[in-house]
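Researcher: Please translate sequence to C-alpha cells.
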Amino acid sequence: MTGRNSRSGSHPTARTAGLDPLGALRTPQDPSCDVFLTGTVFLDIIFTGLDSAPVRGTESWARGMGSSPGGVANMATALARLGLRTSLAAAFGDDHYGEYCWDALEQGEGIDLSLSRTVAGWHSPVTVSMAYEGERTMVSHGHEAPPPARPGGPVPGSVPDGLPPARAAVASLTPGRREPWVAEAARSGARVFADVGWDESGCWDLAALADLEHCEAFLPNAGEAMRYTRTECPRAAARALADRVPVAVVTLGAEGSYAVDGRTGETAEVPGIAVDALDPTGAGDVYVAGFVTGTLAGWPLADRLAFAGLTAALSVQEFGGSLSAPGWEEVAHWWHSQGERPARFAFLEGLLGPQHGSPAAPSAAARRRAVPTIGFRHSA
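Model: Translation complete:
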C-alpha cells in the first residue's frame, strides 16, 4: 500500500467557492473541517441522450458522454462546491482512473484527502450510467479495497484512526451493519446526516439501521421511507421516521420534499423546481449536501428544503454526478436570472446580494464538468 498526502494549510474549497455560508459563524476555536465522510470512489462513465433503454441484441448510440469521479465523490464535491471544508477518507486505485479521481478531487475541488490512501495493485471501481426517460440505469464493477495496515497488521474498516474534529459527518447506512466511525463522530460532537440505499434483501427493517441512533437527520427517498415505515404515504413515512431520528426528510423527486422535526413538531414541504433534466446521476447526493449546508448555517427547515431542492435541480442539467454539482456561482446565476424571483427563495437575497460581494447579474461559472474522456496528452 502506498499513501499520498494532500497539501496542508489553507483549504482551496473555501477560496474557490466564492461564498462561505458559515463565514458569520466561524470562530478561531472551530474545527478546520466542516464535514467528514468516507466511502467508495468510482470512476463514472455516463451516457446521455439515449432515447430508450438498451435493447437486448442491439447496439445503442448515445448522443452524449461524460467521465467524472463518482460514488462518495458525488457528495464530497457537492459539499466542497458549496463552500464547506470537506475531508474525505477513501481508497484510490493506483491506476490512471485512481490518479485522475484523486487529482480531480484534491486539486480541482479542494477536498482534503489527507486521510485517503492509494492502494498498490488495486484497480479503481467503475460505474457505467445510462440516462434515459428521466431516469438512469447503472452497471458497476469493482472489488472491496484491502483494509488499511495498522500496527500489528491490517484491521477491518476503511476509516483511519483519529477522525478529524468536524462540525458534521455524512454517512450512508447499510442494513445490518454498524460503522464504528459513525458513533465516534457523534461522540466527538459532529452532527451526523445519513441517507440509505436500496435494501437488496427486501426486508426493509428499520431496526437494522443500527447507526440511525447516532444521526441528527435521515434523508431517504419516498420509496425507501415508505418501505422502512410500512406506510403508504411519504408524509406519513416522514412522521414515523421522526420518532426515530430528530429530523426526517423524505425526498419526493420532481415533486419536492417533506420534512418533520421530531424535536419541535415542525413540518415543512417545498415543491420541486421544474427543469430540463439531462442526467439525474448524483442528484440525491447534491440534495443532501444542500441540506447539510443550510443546517450548519442555521437556516429554518423550509429554507433548507428549498435550497437542497434547488441545488439538486441545477445538478441534473449537467452530465455526471460529482462534476454536475453547482456552486454558489450557479446558484447566484439562477437567482438573478429569475424574471420574477420566487418568494420561497427570498432568503437567497441576503446571501447573494451585492452587499455580500456578489455581482448584480453574475454569469454562470466555467466550472469543471464531466468530459467524454480523461487524460488528454495536450491541453486544448
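Researcher: Any highlights?
Model: DSSP finds ten helices and 16 strands in the chain.
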